[in-house]
Each structure stands twice: as structure tokens, then as C-alpha cells.
TrEMBL record, chain A:
<dbReference type="GO" id="GO:0000287">
    <property type="term" value="F:magnesium ion binding"/>
</dbReference>
<keyword id="KW-0670">Pyruvate</keyword>
<dbReference type="GO" id="GO:0016491">
    <property type="term" value="F:oxidoreductase activity"/>
</dbReference>
<feature type="domain" description="Transketolase-like pyrimidine-binding">
    <location>
        <begin position="4"/>
        <end position="179"/>
    </location>
</feature>
<keyword id="KW-0560">Oxidoreductase</keyword>
<protein>
    <submittedName>
        <fullName>Alpha-ketoacid dehydrogenase subunit beta</fullName>
    </submittedName>
</protein>
<dbReference type="InterPro" id="IPR029061">
    <property type="entry name" value="THDP-binding"/>
</dbReference>
<dbReference type="Pfam" id="PF02780">
    <property type="entry name" value="Transketolase_C"/>
</dbReference>
<dbReference type="InterPro" id="IPR009014">
    <property type="entry name" value="Transketo_C/PFOR_II"/>
</dbReference>
From TrEMBL, chain B:
<feature type="region of interest" description="Disordered">
    <location>
        <begin position="173"/>
        <end position="209"/>
    </location>
</feature>
<dbReference type="InterPro" id="IPR001078">
    <property type="entry name" value="2-oxoacid_DH_actylTfrase"/>
</dbReference>
<feature type="compositionally biased region" description="Low complexity">
    <location>
        <begin position="80"/>
        <end position="119"/>
    </location>
</feature>
<dbReference type="InterPro" id="IPR000089">
    <property type="entry name" value="Biotin_lipoyl"/>
</dbReference>
<comment type="subunit">
    <text>Forms a 24-polypeptide structural core with octahedral symmetry.</text>
</comment>
<keyword id="KW-0012">Acyltransferase</keyword>
<feature type="compositionally biased region" description="Basic and acidic residues">
    <location>
        <begin position="178"/>
        <end position="201"/>
    </location>
</feature>
<comment type="similarity">
    <text>Belongs to the 2-oxoacid dehydrogenase family.</text>
</comment>
<dbReference type="InterPro" id="IPR023213">
    <property type="entry name" value="CAT-like_dom_sf"/>
</dbReference>
Amino acid sequence: MAVITYRQALHDTLREEMLSDENVFLIGEEIGVFEGSYKITAGLLEEFGEKRVRDTPIAEEGFVGAAVGAAMLGLRPVVELMTINFSLLALDQIVNHAAKIYGMFGGQSSAPMVLRTPGGGGQQLGATHSQNIELYYAFVPGLKVVAPSTPADARALLKASLADNDPVLFLENLALYNTKGEVPEDAPPAEIGKAGITRTGSDITIIGYSRMATVATQVAEQLSEEGISAEVIDLRSLRPLDRETLVESVRKTGCAVITEDDWLTYGVGAEIAASISDGAFDYLDAPVRRVAAAEVPLPYAKPLERAALPSAESLKTAVRQTLEAVGHRR
Amino acid sequence: MTEIHMPRLSDTMEEGVISTWHKQVGDQINRGDVVAEIETDKAVMEMEAYDDGVLEKILVGEGETVPIGVPIGLMGDGSGAAAAAGPSDSGAQESSAGSEDAEASTDSAAAETAPRTAALSSGESGAEPHGRPKASPLARAVAREKGVDLSTVTGTGPGGRIIRVDIEAAAEAATDGAEQRRSQVPESRPAERSEAEQRDPDLEEIPLSNIRKVTARRLTESKQQAPHFYLTSAVDVTDLVSFRADLNERLQASGGPKVSVNDLVVKACATALRANPSVNVSFRDEKLFQHKRVHLGVAVALDSGLVVPVIPDADRKSVSEIAAEGKEKAERARDGKLKPDEMSGSTFSVSNLGMFGIEEFSAVINPPEAAILAVGATREEVQVHDGEFVVRKMMRMTLSADHRAVDGAVGAVFMQQLTSLLQDPIRIIA
């Protein structure tokens, strides 16, 4: 089993899928000659040619729309949106077209396509380039939104996304590209809509996705040295949402802390908290807490940017405070 | 008289709100005048008059919502005749009743919200609104399971909130005494032991049979929802007992099955119900139903719970038929082979605990029936007849009736007739 980066896992999986299915093609800005802003598509133009690796002008609505049409006619487009911030320019194509085709045409047509796009802050890219707006898409029925946090999940979920007949927003995170992990080459595609339990525990459930899922796992490891047994759930998919797994976990532990890189108000955590209240109300010993980004456009200045984003420390504090409130004896 | 109706102003419009009346009662209306502004699901639109006349009555006020087609106003010649005649169909009444309902529910919603808001704010100050202790949902669930009374527990959570550890500590303290008295109990099924058992080894949880679950639910509903009242009569069954002995001799001679006192009671009940249909009723969903047939349920106690096999049309069957059918169904009930439709549809039930020596008891009504008869044991008692002590065989029976469906006097007449039948048993088989 190879230990590779998240970036490499994405690249390898894309190549593999292009080799096995000639309907798969890539489209986006600077993915060909320049090999992608984050080098996910390195070498693919050379290998597969211009027909299958299509560089486009800076015109998000245009190339996403072209991909929707291609998907409706039987191809399997993989769109690279340079960052999720630019996806806003293609919002109409994604929300009003790709998401609705299956339902509005009574199932006669669908748009099986993958919209790969990195998001997240912490790279000192300023407020307009550092957002976690996946929630906008997770809100829309007809779209699927997945967010792998490990190289293995990146591979398994990308395979599943390409096999899916619905449009899938495939959320990457800039901070994860260089993280490494074991990637089993013969692993089957993931099941979209199934959360992962990355660590089992009995005192409290920590729920996160994408970058914060990896932070949560590290935090749980560290807290175990303090005698706290935390269970960590990596959502993996924001829509469909695996309410069952998280409710089951909270029923076991009686406490929950949710962590997310996006903003607090109306965020993914709000949906999770409502699901917990619905499915595990009688099992709660403390209010559900959320650890999210400060509600500001993300600052450029490094110390301010750090302070605005949720950290391992802020998550640890929230877990400790929740457990102290229910008399957890360490 | 011309009715003004709520117009259909868009394809998707189903109801509209009168936003403004531009005309008042008594105003002259000419065709094409704007009479009112209507708020639809899409926009506020002007409504023009199709006819000339005088607005005599406004049926739907500003701000009110009504479905399309419902009369909202009446136009006439100005004499007031239209207003006096009123709208032709009941749509307006219905809609106004509907809006009253809406108002009522708004009121009750407001009433509910008020204390809740208060609870929230006082909750923050750490007080206990309405004497309800502050406890986490988990603590409440665990308290329910362990039978701990929340009001006896001191909360150690934030603001004095009772949390799981508080309940566990309270339950532990309560069972400490029991622990010390613990004898050598064989540990059966250790893996399956419930949490309650683990706390108290003298306690074993028995899984609920389906019958017991259903019985528990239905009888709880019955006792909670049906206002029970009870009528007890003492019956002189001296003649009934000798009649039964005589009857059984004859039946045996002809190879028929024996009849029990209960079979005679069942038959007598069926006859009395036929004569008193007001007891053969059901109360369901705020409605009273009169049963045209008499189906008697006969309660049978099983190890797994209570079942009530039904003898349909008991009033049209002979006592020996009732005896044979009752016996056969009770046996199949014991084997668990009674079909669900053989246990439902009864209109009245009889429960007899006389064989256990119970002299008198009151039964819980088997819903949706309106009454049940509880029959006690027969025993010899000293009675006074014409100033002399005589020994008679007496049996007490108690009617439990649902007062929503049956009045006291109606139940009493039924009991009187039943008593008279049982005291003159030849009439039971007449």
C-alpha cells in the first residue's frame, strides 16, 4: 500500500478513470499546458491530448455549462474550478441547471458530472479566495456534495463521484493537498452519503469534515492522554448527509461538539445540531457545541487569519468544557 | 341580490386575502369600479365589480383569508334585502368559522409561547419554572429508566442542571441497601441482563409479549380517556344454579356440552343488550355509534396476557351454542391460535373472576366498547326475606360504563333487566 499525498491520490485516480472510461474528460482553466493551479492534472494533457483535457478561457459559466451539456449527452465531464470562490460565477449552471435536470425532465435526462474545486482558508489568499461556501451547494437538492479529508477517501470518493449519475460537487481543501496517507490501490469506490468513524470513543462525539475532520482526529488522540475518550466522525458527504451514523454515535456518548471551517451562523454545524436534536434528544447530557470560523471575511494578515479559523486548541477547549459541564471524571 | 365572490386571479391561486375594501356598506358600485384589493399568492390585485348595485354587506373583513369562490360581500338595490337574506351557500360561514378556529389556535399558541418564553428566561437565572427541575434530556431518560424522581435529585451541572452522573449517583444510593441484602442469586443470562437488573440483582426484566404491550396500551388509553362509572348489583342466583344443574343433566343426556354460569350470564347480557340498545354503543373520535348487532367479548386470562375472544351475534345464539363456541375459542386462545378478527369487533365484554373466589370487582372497559360487566363468585349468604333469615346463593356483578356514551340511569336499567333475567333463568333461554 502506497503512502502518497492527497494531491497525488487525486491525480492518480483521475488518470485511472480516464484510462478505464473514454467518456471521462477534464475541462477547466489552465488544467492543460499549465497542468492545473495545484498540479492535479500534471501530465494528463500530454498523455490524453486536447480532446480529453480541455483548457478553457476564464469563463466559469461557459465551461460549466458546456460540461452540463456534455454530461446530458453521455460524457462524464470532470470540471476543475480553480477555487470554490470562482464557482459563484457558474452558480446558475450548477444550481439551476445541473442540479435540476433529472427532476425537471422526469428522469429522462441527467447530468452526471464532477465539479472538483478546492476551498478553505489559511493560505493568506485574502477574503475572496479563502472561503468555505460548500454549504451553498449542500443546500440544493439534486446536487451531491462530498468532502474527502484523507488521500484514501479522496480516491474512493472521486471514483464514486464519477460513477454517480447526479452532479457531484467534489470539495478539496488547499490545506490538505500535501497531507499524506496510505492509499490502498484495490479499495472499492466509497459509498456517497456514508460518514466515517475515524476514531471510536465513549465520552463525546466530535463531528467534522474536510480539514477539520483531520484536526478533530488529532485532537481526539491528544485528548485521550487526558483520559478523554472522544469518537470522531468525518462526514465525508454533506449531501446526502449520514444522519444515522452521527445520531448513533451521540446516542452512545451523550455529548457532541461539531467543528467546521465555515462560518457558524446557518452553517453545516447547524444542520448537524438539528439532526442530533431530532434523533438523539433523549441521549444528550449537554447542549451541542459548535466550533467554527469567526464570522468575518477572512483576513489576509497571517495572525488575524489564524485567529479567525477554528483551531485544534479551540476544539480541545470546547470538548473539555462540554465534558466538565457533565461531570466527566478524568 | 348579487354575491361578490373571492375571484380567481391567477392559475395557482387557491385562496386570497382581502387587503383593502375600497367600498363601504351603503356605497353605490358601478360596473368596473374597484371594489377591493385582493392579495394572492403572487401579488396584490384590484378587484373590479361586474355589476351595478349598492354594497349592502361585507362578509369577509380586511386581512381575512378565504378560498376562491367564497362570497365576500353582498350587493343589492340598497333596500337592505340582500343583507337580510345573507349569502346563498355555506361557504362564508365555513370560512368565518375557519378563521375563528385560526384565531383560537393563534390565541392558544400565544398562551403556550408566553410561559415557554418565561421558562427560558427564568431557566437562565437558574430557577425552576413551574417546579420542573432543570435536567438534561439524557438525565431525564436515565431517570425514567431507573425510576428516579428528578425532584429528589440535586443537579451538579451548569446552573444546577441535573445531568446523567447525578441520576446515577441517586440510583446507586437507592440500591446500596439492596446490594447489601443481596443473596446468592444464580446469574442467568448475564449478557442479556438489562441495566435495571445490573443495578438490582433481585430484579429481572421480562420481555413484553405483544399481547401484553397491546393490552397495556389500550387499557391505559381506556382508563385515561373513558370516564368510568360503576354500578354493582347483587343477584340472587339460587334459581340460576339449580336451573343450570337441571339444564346440564338434560344436555348431557342428549350428548351436548355443559353450560357454565358464565355462559348463562353471557346469554343474559346479550338479551339485555338487545332490549337496551343504548348500552350497545361505542364512543370514538368524539362520535357516538349505535351497534345494530350484539357481539360479546369474553375475557380469558393467559400467561402471556389478556385476550378477549368474541362471540358474534350472541343474542341470536342458544346458551349451548355460546358454551360450545366460547369453550372452543378460549382453548384456541390458550394455544395462541385465535385469529385477530376473532378477537375484535365485540360491542360489550364480560369478565368473570368468580372461579378465583373474587366476590366483587370492577373491570376496565375494553375500548371502543362503552361498557364491561365484571362477574364475581357465587356464595351462600344470609338474606332477609319477609322478615325471616334465609340462605340464598348470591352473585355480585359490576358494570363499568363509559359516561361519555352511557348515562347512569341507562346503565341502571340495563343492570335491572340483567338481574331480573338471571333471577328468572327460564327467560334467558326463552
